[in-house]
Structures are given as C-alpha cells and as structure tokens.
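Postdoc handover notes: sequence design on the structure in folder B. Input tokens:
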C-alpha cells in the first residue's frame, strides 16, 4: 500500500502512540497494580491537586463524557473517597473534595507513578533524559496551548551548527531552497566565529522550553554601519513576538555601539520577515532579480538610520 506524506505522518504518530501506551502501562485494565483505571486515577489526581472542583470542571479539564464522570464520582462517593458540597457561588453546582481516605488512597498511587517514571529515566544517560523531556515539551507546545515564555541568550557551543542546520532545513521546506543556501549560512556563521569582535558584534539565541527556536546576528559592515543577518524563528514558536524582539535587540545594540545605520539583505518571498522589518522602520533601498538557491528570486536590501 502506498502512502502520501500526510498518511505516512499519521502512521508514524499512531505507531508512537502504540509504543508509548505500552511504555506507561495504559493497556492494562488497572493502573499501577491498583483497583483503578487510568481515567479514575487521573480524576483522583485532579481532585488531589485542585480544591473543590465540580463534575463540570472535570469534564472540561479532562475532555470526558459527563455521564462517565458521574458514574466514577458516584463510585468514589460510595467508597468514601470524596465528599460533595453545594458551591457557594453557584447553587446548581456541586463541589467535590477528597476525604482523608481519598487522600490516603491517592498517595501510594502517586508514589508508584513517580517510581515507574524514575525507573524509566534510570535506564537513560543524563543527556538522553534531558532530550526526552525537551521532546515531550515540544509535543505539548505543538499540540496544546503553547507557552508564551522564551529567553534570549548568548550562543553556547553547538548553537551555531544548529542555526545553520535548522535555518537551512526550514528554508528548504518552506521555500524550496537548495544547498546553496546552507553553504551561505555556514559561511556567515564561520566568519562570525573566526572574526568575532564583542565590541561591535553580537548574536542572540532564542530558546523556548529548553530548545533553540530562533537567532539573529548583527555584524560590523563599516565604521558607521552594522548589518543584520540570519534572522529566523522556528514555526512552532512563531506568533510570540520572538522575531520582532530579536530585531529590536539588534537596533538597541547598534545604537549603544554608536552605529549610525543598520542594513540587511533578504528576498522578497520572505514575507513574514519583511513585515517584521517594516514594523521596525526599515525601508527598501535596492531590489533586483537574480537566480540563486535553485530558484529565480528578487533580492532586497533594506536599511534604516539609527
């Protein structure tokens, strides 16, 4: 059976889901050698960590059917694990709270879960553990509500190679650029590393959830001018203002150094980047068609005074 790219990705996700459910024992009828199912343990977890939830809260937070939650809650109440009380803010709602017996029942389940995860981590090296955590964070960011937090920092060993790889891969995927672009990016980064002057040049690395998601360089062009280079932001981190923040940092640094002007080179099809530059006050000063990176393109030189 032949698969197109979309179907192949779907099969890879299904394969991962089968692997991970086996890994954490979800396929067992009862979780952590207890009398409770995975969903029941998850409801206990929510009640243990959030005071006075309602059944509606559980349905919304866990994406569960109201009838199913009602049956689980009734079972917990019969076992003496929870108590019910009328909500002080909504007379129609009933709040749920774990009893002392409920808390005592949940604690060994929580401890057992921690031990299982610790056992899994103990089989991995320290770098592999961090790689696993970072990968899980990226999955949550892509599929869930993305975190708005990120940091800008100075480059660390290994960052420059990542910048060349990631930007080249993105531009190949999004714009069809060939390996000529990778060669150019590598040349820019190599020159920066070999000739770096901290008094007049700088690189910022954007990091989100422990992963590099963007970068920008500002380098000396001449005594009065700086050049902005290799701005990029990873797709899953776009929409957070990272690109604009990186450009703003370049402008701030250039003013501090005493540059009078900042210039940059781009291509007309990089429209997202162009919008950032326009908002930052850059203006088009040169434009011409050319052929590079395996395509017919239109180069643009933008500049602004400081």
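Designed sequence:
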């Amino acid at each position: 059976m032949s698969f197109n790219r979309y179907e192949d990705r779907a099969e890879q996700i299904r394969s991962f889901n089968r692997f991970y459910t086996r890994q954490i024992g979800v396929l067992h009828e009862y979780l952590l050698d207890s009398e409770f199912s995975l969903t029941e343990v998850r409801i206990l977890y929510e009640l243990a960590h959030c005071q006075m939830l309602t059944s509606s809260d559980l349905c919304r937070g866990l994406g569960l059917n109201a009838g199913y939650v009602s049956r689980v809650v009734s079972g917990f109440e019969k076992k003496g694990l929870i108590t019910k009380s009328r909500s002080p803010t909504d007379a129609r709602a009933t709040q749920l709270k774990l009893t002392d017996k409920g808390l005592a029942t949940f604690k060994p389940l929580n401890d057992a879960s921690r031990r299982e995860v610790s056992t899994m981590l103990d089989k991995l090296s320290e770098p592999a553990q961090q790689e696993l955590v970072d990968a899980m964070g990226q999955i949550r960011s892509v599929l869930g509500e993305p975190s708005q937090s990120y940091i800008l920092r100075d480059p660390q060993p290994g960052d420059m190679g990542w910048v060349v790889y990631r930007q080249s891969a993105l531009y190949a995927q999004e714009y069809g650029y060939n390996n000529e672009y990778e060669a150019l990016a590598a040349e820019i980064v190599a020159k920066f590393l070999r000739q770096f002057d901290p008094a007049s040049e700088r690189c910022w690395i954007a990091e989100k959830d422990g992963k590099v998601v963007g970068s920008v360089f500002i380098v000396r062009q001449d005594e009065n001018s700086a050049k902005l280079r290799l701005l990029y932001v990873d797709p899953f981190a776009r929409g957070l203002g990272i690109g604009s923040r990186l450009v703003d940092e370049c402008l701030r640094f250039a003013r501090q150094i005493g540059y009078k002007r900042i210039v940059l080179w781009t291509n007309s099809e990089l429209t997202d980047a162009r919008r950032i530059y326009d908002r930052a006050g850059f203006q088009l000063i040169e434009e011409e068609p050319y052929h590079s990176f395996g395509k017919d393109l239109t180069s643009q030189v933008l500049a602004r005074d400081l």
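Context for whoever picks this up: The chain has a mean pLDDT of 86. Don't rerun without checking with the PI first.
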